[in-house]
Design brief:
10-stranded mixed β-sheet, 3-stranded mixed β-sheet, binds calcium ion
Length: 286
């Protein structure tokens, strides 16, 4: 892979040995995976992020990340971690998950991970996450659990939502020093640090597939049918998408998403990213 990529970049064939990112000289390096929930989860999603002026603060943001696999362009696995890490991303800062050492120095273009429910025995709490959090996530079958507050500047509602849908984030790519890179790049003596970034605003997107989706709060805020100040998943499920404004909450080609709860459950599968804004191909694990 490095040969063809170098040749393509240089426009010259048969010069691979003189080209590239110091990956053709042999040796070994490592890859470290970290995770971060960004300011949106640590602090708030501010009103100017929302199309309709709402804002969000999170009090708890538990997410399971695991089954990390590194493979080369031919699909040969170089490293794998079977198991999940539980992170509470309201705890500030980047959390280190795992380092794979002794990898042959070369590009590995196929990197994947999961955000999926898991059994307690397969979950390792990270940082401020506790064994009680582990047992809670496992017994409920959640891959993500959030507690927070949505505010319109005057009034606020709380929410406590857990979602449990297995998701494989495959063929991840993101930018290294501004250059879009598939997977990871192991260099001799180097450590490629990959942030598996979690995006806290995705729960509030108003379209499942359009790149023009914006972040909205109105429909969620108004879903509190019994007016007790908390928006439950049951109340979200009572909101039919056809009753919302026609230019909002489009489902694209996604089937069987007819209410606001199913809509947000689908979005709960899209929170995992790669090196900040980088993305993966979302699918069901085998
Ligand atoms: Ca309520």
């Amino acid at each position: 892979m490095s040969v063809s990529r170098c040749a393509a970049l240089s426009g010259l064939a048969l010069l691979s040995a003189a080209c590239g990112d110091d990956t053709s000289s042999g040796g070994e390096g490592s890859v470290t995976f970290t995770t971060w929930g960004e300011e949106y989860i640590e602090q708030e999603i501010p009103a100017d992020t929302f199309e309709d002026g709402y804002s969000i603060t999170y009090d708890k943001f538990l997410v399971l990340i695991g089954n990390i696999v590194i493979a080369d362009d031919a699909g040969a696995e170089a490293a794998r971690h079977d198991g999940f890490f539980l992170i509470n991303h309201t705890e500030p800062g980047t959390k280190e998950l795992i380092t794979f050492d002794g990898l042959e120095a070369k590009p590995y273009t196929l990197v994947s991970y999961e955000t999926s429910p898991a059994a307690a025995a397969n979950i390792e709490p990270v940082g401020a996450a506790t064994q009680a959090d582990v047992d809670f996530m496992a017994s409920e079958g959640f891959h993500v659990y959030i507690e927070g507050t949505i505010s319109n500047g005057t009034d606020s509602k709380t929410f406590k939502w857990g979602f449990g849908v297995p998701t494989l984030l495959d063929e991840c790519e993101g930018e290294i020093d501004g250059k879009l890179t598939e997977g990871v790049l192991v260099t001799n003596g180097g450590d490629d640090v990959v942030e598996l970034t979690i995006h806290g605003d995705h729960f509030f997107y108003d379209d499942l597939q359009s790149p023009d989706a914006v972040v909205r709060g109105d429909a969620v805020f108004n879903a509190d049918a019994d007016g007790d100040g908390e928006v439950t998943r049951q109340e979200l499920a009572a909101v039919s998408l056809i009753d919302l404004p026609p230019d909002q909450y489009g489902t694209g080609g996604v089937d069987a998403v007819n209410d606001l709860d199913a809509f947000i459950e689908f979005l709960s599968r899209t929170i995992g990213h790669y090196r900040g804004e980088g993305e993966c191909f979302l699918t069901d694990p085998e």
